[in-house]
Amino acid sequence: MVQILLNHHAVFFISTIGENMSVFILLNCKTYDEGTGENAVKLAEACREIAESAGVEIAIAPQIPDIHRVARAVDIPVYAQHVDGAGPGSHTGKIYAKAIKEAGAVGSLVNHSERRLTLADIESSVAVLKENKMMSVICTNNVATTAAAAAFNPTYVAIEPPALIGSGVPVSKADPDIITDSVDAAARISPNVKVLCGAGISQGEDLKAAIELGAKGVLLASGIVKADDPKSALYELVSLI
Ligand code: G3P
User: Fold this and answer.
1) In ligand 1, which atom is closest to the CA atom of 220?
2) How far apart are CA 113 and CA 140, in angstroms?
3) Is 236 a catalytic residue?
4) Percentages helix, strand, coil for the chain, rounded to the nearest 5?
């Protein structure tokens, strides 16, 4: 049923390829069972299929022990959910950027709401990602921290009001100003930094609204990872762009 639906809409997707290529969707598996181990691979395969047919960049952030198995199975970008600012040397228990790169990651989230860091830690995590030529996505919780994060010149800043995370209430509807103000703040501080938004995003209209508000894409989790049929949920997510 899903397969037929996807094939049926392939023509629509082909006509919009190009416009969509700059839209970036980053799916965070968190520690949901539905996104752990082989389930992370299945999610990544769904991401790859929808990314290919819709001409949208979809990346996945599995748990760190799953990076290698996911990166070997799919050719979409794989991100870590966290990286430390540690370099080579005596740093037992730290997550080293070079190690996640060798496992197959192209970048990492930094300072996710569920894995907060100090400002100094954020700076060193981004620095070590840059040293290893990797992407950085600094998560922020308000406009002021977005401005501070932009000063580190990461690849992306992802604004996510913590109260809306996992709520099913999309930030693009509940607090559109936080997106536009974050886009303005980042542009003032560091014009090359792209802004994503996240929290409660799950529907095509949420993604469309985020793009219209100036975001380059979305960071999302539960709406897709915990969906009964993640591939259909992804298909619906990209259907309006
Ligand atoms: O990292 C994504 C995030 O925190 C948003 O979670 O479940 O509201 O999409 P969710």
Assistant:
1) 9
2) 7
3) no
4) 50, 15, 35
pTM: 0.91
Residue 201 Cβ inside 6 Å of ligand 1? The answer reads yes
What is the C-alpha to C-alpha distance for residues 41 and 17, in angstroms, rounded to an integer?
25
Judge contact between 112 and 133, C-beta under 8 A.
Answer: no
Distance CA 14, CA 191 (A): 31
Q: Ligand 1 pocket: which of 220, 224, 237 to mutate (most atoms <8 Å of CB)?
A: 220
- pLDDT interval class at 20 (50, 70, 90): low
Contact 23, 195 (CB under 8 A): no
Is residue 4 within 8 A of residue 229, CB to CB? The reply is: no
Furthest-apart CA pair in the chain: how many Å? 55
Rounded mean pLDDT of 111-128?
Answer: 98
Q: What is the pLDDT of residues 58-95, one digit of tens each?
A: 999 999 999 999 999 999 999 999 999 999 999 999 99
